[in-house]
Amino acid sequence: MKLRIKKDEILRGLQRIQGVVDKKNTMPILSNMLLSADTKGVEIVATDLEIGLRGRYVADVEQPGAVTVSAKKMYEIVRELPSEDIQIRAEENNSVKIVSGQSQFKLVGLPKEEYPSMPDVAEEGMISIAGETLRDMIRKTIYASGENDARYVLNGLFLHLSPAKSGLNIRMVGTDGHRLSLIDRTVDATHKEESVIIPKKAMLELRRLLEEDASQEGFQIGLSKNHALFKRDGLVMVSKLIDGNYPNYQQVIPAKNTKLVAVSRDLFTHAVKRVSILSKEKTNAVKLQLEKGTLLLSTNNPEVGEANEEIAVDYQGDGLTIGFNSRYLLDVLMAMDTPTITLELHDPLSPCLVKEEGSDSYRCVVMPMRV
Predict the structure, then answer these.
(1) Cβ neighbours of residue 59 closer than 8 Å, sequence gap 6 or more
(2) Which residues 6+ apart lie within 8 Å of 56 measured at CB?
(3) How far is it, in rounded angstroms, from Cα 357 to Cα 18?
(4) Fold of the CATH domain 2-114
(5) What is the pLDDT of residues 33-70, one digit of tens each?
(6) What percent of the chain has a predicted confidence (pLDDT) above 90?
(7) What's 41's DSSP letter?
(8) Which of 39, 167, 183, 330 is the most exposed place for a label (fewest CB within 10 A)?
(9) Hey, which CATH number is domain 127-249, 3.10.310.30, 3.10.150.10, 3.20.20.70, 3.40.50.720?
(10) How far apart are CA 312 and CA 292, in angstroms?
C-alpha cells in the first residue's frame, strides 16, 4: 500500500474513531484501526466489537492495500505534522511508514487478516431523518440514561418507531430510575412498529458525528434483529443492540399533577446553580418552597453553611415544599430550549414533570428526595 493524502482529510477520519477504539486493550487488535486503500480512495475502520465506524476519504492511491496500526498513535502523529501532504506506505512485517516534509515515522502494525469485520446490516427500509433532528433528540435524552447500571437495559436509549397520521413517529427515551426524558418527533417515512435499545456509548459517538454537520438531510437509520445502522455520505456506523425488555416508562410519567408552575428557564437555572454550591456533595439536595407567585430555593449544610434565593413564578395554587437532587434538575434545565418552562407538581413524594412552554413532545420526569 502506498498513498498520499491531505492532512485535514485523514485527521478528520482519525478524530472520528478515537471514541470507538477499545481503550481497555483486552485485545491488542482493537486498539488499532484498519486503513484500506483502493482506486476510490482510503477507508478507515475502527471497532470495539460493540460499535463499528467506517469512513471513506479522498486520497491519491499509488498502490492499493491494507494495514492495521494504533489508532491513537496515528492520530497523535498526524495531528502534529507540519505539512499538508502526508505519504503513507506499508512496509515489511506489517509496519507503516509515515512521511511529511522532513518528518518520518514508522509504526508497528498487526496483520490485516486479524482485524474483525463489521457486521452486515441490510439497508432495506432505512429511515431518512434530518441530522439536526436526530442530534437534538439524543441531546435531550442521553443525560437521563444509566451509567454502568446493574439493570443493563437502562444503559442505553430506547427507540420506538410507530406509524403516525402524518408519517412515522420516532420516540427516544432515557432513564436511570431517578429521572426520565422522553421526546417525540415525526418524520416523513413509513416503517413497521418497532422498538430497540441502543447503547449509550453508540449514541454519544453518533451525537459527535452529527455535531460535525447536523444540517445534512441525508442521514439514515436502519434496524435489524441485533444491530442498528446509521449512515450518511461516506460514513457508516453500526452498533449492537441491548437485548432485554425496557421498563414500562409510561407509568412513571405523572398524568394528574395539578400544581402548574411557569418559570423563566434562565432564572431558575442560575438560582439552582447558586444555591446548590452549598448543598451536600453526596446528595446535592435543594429544597423548593412554592407559594403564590414565588419559589424559594434553599439548602442547609451544617458543615459548610446555608443558601436561600427567591424567584418570581407564575403560580396561584396552594403551597408545597419538595426536595430534588440539584444535578438532576440542572441536567433537565440545560436540555430545555424555550425561555419559559412548566413544572407540574402534586405533593412532596410525587415525581415532577417538566415541559417546554407550549409543547408536549418533550417531557422530563425528576423524582423527589427527602430534605
Answers:
(1) 3, 4, 5, 9, 10, 37, 41, 42
(2) 40, 41, 42, 43, 234, 235
(3) 38
(4) DNA Polymerase III; Chain A, domain 2 (3.10.150)
(5) 999 999 999 999 999 999 999 999 999 999 999 999 99
(6) 88
(7) E
(8) 39
(9) 3.10.150.10
(10) 9
Q: In whole angstroms, what is the distance from residue 57 CA to residue 35 CA?
A: 11
**Which CATH number among 3.40.50.1000, 3.10.150.10, 3.40.605.10, 3.90.226.10 corresponds to the domain 253-366?**
3.10.150.10
Set of cell numbers at residue 327: 444535578
Residue type, 194: E
Dump the DSSP string for 251-302: GGS-S---EEEEEEHHHHHHHHHHHHTTS-TTT-EEEEEEETTEEEEEEEET
> Would the pTM count as exceeding 0.90?
yes
d(CA 197, CA 154): 9
Determine the Cα–Cα distance for residues 198 and 203; give it in Å rounded to an integer.
7
